[in-house]
Specification:
The structure is a homodimer of 243-residue chains. With 243 residues, chain A is mostly helical. Chain A contains 10 helices and 2 strands. The radius of gyration of chain A is 23 Å and the shape is elongated. Chains A and B meet through helix 1, helix 3, helix 4, helix 5 and helix 8 of A and helix 1, helix 3, helix 4, helix 5 and helix 8 of B. Chain B binds a DNA duplex (30 and 30 nucleotides) through helix 3.
Chain lengths: 243, 243
DNA sequence: TCTCGTCCGATTGTCCGACAATCCTACGAT
DNA sequence: ATCGTAGGATTGTCGGACAATCGGACGAGA
């Protein structure tokens, strides 16, 4: 066993086609929003059958690199949007048996510094959006489904105020996981609504006055509050999320 | 314009097949590592042509939900691993014109609290891995390529010490983006090596002694140092990363 | 007993050709 | 200017076909 050989793999044609297309997209030969040549034309250029091209295209569609506009069947180059990417990441996390505790911990670690950054960098427009999200949560007493949505939306707007695409894209999956768990919690603990409303108001105020330290600490309390909610609701933090 | 209708979309068959399969994977009827029925069999069950099944499978392959084991051609259910997911997210970020500054800022916001959590939660095994990563960086004076890799690896091991899958998966794309930019920087600023070595040593010490506050503050300095490196190297932080 | 050929069925990768449905565009008609 | 319409282009789906290769079983030889 002196030498070790690395696995030699014969890539099927559809993979090569997919990679060739991906390369063109990443190096921006094919630009965002641009229309792709027809399947027949691609088949001609690559010298493969149309079926093979189709398989390659499906793969890139799964990657979010290709898509079609609403109600159109022409394929265009799309950059994967936050929600699409987050959906994929969310699925991955669910399949990796992520628990409620994991979600809560991640929030506890990520959101306070994000709030801090938001307080530092927010524009007036950002502030308006955050305020709107907070107001929406406070106003909509309809059902738990919309309440959970607006609670997540609040985090989303705060994230957007950092003006950092990586942070926005990175904590989007977290919010997607948060939403269903919030639904479960708020359904059982109605008084949590009022607490959340208050906390959001404080955080909003801190961000408005660009009070970095206060934004962080209120966000910390806000999230700690959530864990109390789970406790009261009798939700086991160790149980894993479902898809 | 009193009423608004929501778009009605006729999903093609391959999408429905893909969704049916995805559902089975997410609800764990099809379990991780399990072998998928043959294409012919699936076609029979769904009542569609084999080509249609193939397109659906390609899409799920793009999502990372299906894959094949090394050198095998049998399809199995795979949960998307961190590197696969991160690759997708990384591509998305690149296409969204992320800049070096974005990467640096995100690190600045995320890594200190991660280091803090790592100091709080690390096991002895984690510590050994972090120490190994630091030692590797210090020892390998070979090329900038491996130095950049080991620098990223240090962050990775610290992230792993938080024992939070969401954090690990979330900052993986960041590290993938970091690596190439580190290569560029370290090539031009050789003295950065020594500084990084020192910083890693301090962080390691803090994590070893579970000194939460110190872990955070050294990590902060560590990352601030990187930005100085970019400055010295004359790299424009505003320029965008390339795929 | 363990390893090595060898064989066969199952499965995937690729191709061809075909056709209906639907979209896109342009051209007139009202 | 809005609406209908006709024609061409493109996609979605199907059927069948065949080579390559994999997985597993079976048996021969050390």
């Amino acid at each position: 066993m002196a030498v070790e050989f690395e696995a030699i793999r014969a890539e099927p044609a559809y993979r090569k086609v997919a990679e060739a297309l991906m390369e063109r997209i990443l190096d921006r030969t094919l630009r965002y929003g641009e229309r792709l040549p027809s399947e027949t034309e691609l088949a001609r250029q690559f010298g493969v059958n149309r079926s093979t091209v189709r398989e390659a295209v499906r793969e890139l569609q799964g990657n979010g690199l290709l898509g079609r506009r609403r109600g159109s069947k022409l394929l265009v180059v799309t950059r994967p949007e936050a929600d699409h990417v987050a959906e994929g990441v969310g699925r991955a996390l669910v399949l990796h048996d992520v628990t409620y505790r994991d979600v809560w911990e991640a929030l506890m670690i990520l959101e306070p510094p994000i709030a801090e950054a938001a307080a530092r960098r927010r524009t007036d427009a950002d502030l308006a959006l955050i305020a709107a999200a907070a107001a929406n949560f406070a106003a909509k007493n309809e059902g738990t489904e919309s309440a959970a949505f607006h609670a997540a939306e609040f985090f989303r707007t705060v994230g957007a105020a950092t003006h950092n695409r990586i942070l926005m894209l990175g904590h989007e999956p977290l919010l997607q996981l948060l939403e269903p768990s919030l639904r479960a919690m708020m359904g059982k603990v109605p008084q949590s609504r009022a607490r959340i409303t208050t906390a959001e108001k404080r955080i909003l105020e801190a961000i408005r006055s660009k009070d970095v330290e206060s934004a962080r600490s209120w966000m910390t309390r806000h999230i700690r509050d959530y864990s109390k909610g789970y406790e009261i609701a009798g939700i086991d933090l160790q149980s894993r999320l479902e898809g």
